[in-house]
Amino acid sequence: LRASKSFTAALAGETERNGHGLAYKSVSVGHLEAAPLSPSRLSLARRASSTATSTAAPEQGRPRDYLVLAIFSCFCPVWPINVVGLVFSIMSRNSGQQGDLDGARRLGRMARLLSIVSMVLGTIIIVLYISLSVRGNDSF
Predict the structure, then answer these.
(1) Where are its TM segments located (predicted)?
(2) Cα–Cα distance between 127 and 63 in angstroms, integer?
(3) Residues 74-112: tens digit of each pLDDT
(4) Is residue 70 within 8 Å of residue 86, measured between CB atoms?
């Protein structure tokens, strides 16, 4: 015996009777198609999509990868941290190009954090080195 590869997810009469759920067409396995929406459901869907797009509009766009900041931080003397920040920045750029915007934002934020930490620590190390070397020269 061979099993059929088509099925019906919901019967149209059942969804019309109770008003809950969406009707689906009977199609092959893996391909469910929603039945057309009634006018009242269509207007609700339009309202929901318009509010969703208005709140999500500022988030759209290409996320920042902070590559220039990561490259600039590589000149600070905290090499393990700034190299990892550079790697996160490159990974953020690659994720953005592949369409993973959430991953690109997350990796970009991490690259920014590591770059800023690297520059702050690098500045502290440089100031300490200069102040200790100046103090060491004054004793002679």
Answers:
(1) 66-90, 111-132
(2) 34
(3) 999 998 999 999 999 999 999 999 999 999 999 999 999
(4) yes
What is the C-alpha radius of gyration for the chain, rounded to an integer number of angstroms?
Answer: 29
Q: What is the 3-state secondary structure of 24-80?
A: ECCEECCCCCECCCCHHHHHHHHHHHHHHHHHHHHHCCCCCCCHHHHHHHCCCCCHH
Q: Give first-to-last CA distance, the chain, whole Å.
A: 98
Please determine, for residue 65, whether its predicted confidence score (pLDDT) is greater than 90: yes
The mean predicted confidence, pLDDT, of the chain is 75
Sign of the Cα torsion 129, 131, 132, 134 reads positive
* Residue 7: DSSP 8-state: E
Query: Could you tell me which residue, 86 or 9, shows the higher pLDDT?
Result: 86
- Joined together, the tokens standing for residue 96 give 């953005």
Residues 5-29, mean pLDDT to the nearest whole number: 49
Query: Any idea which residue has 């929406």 for tokens?
Result: 37
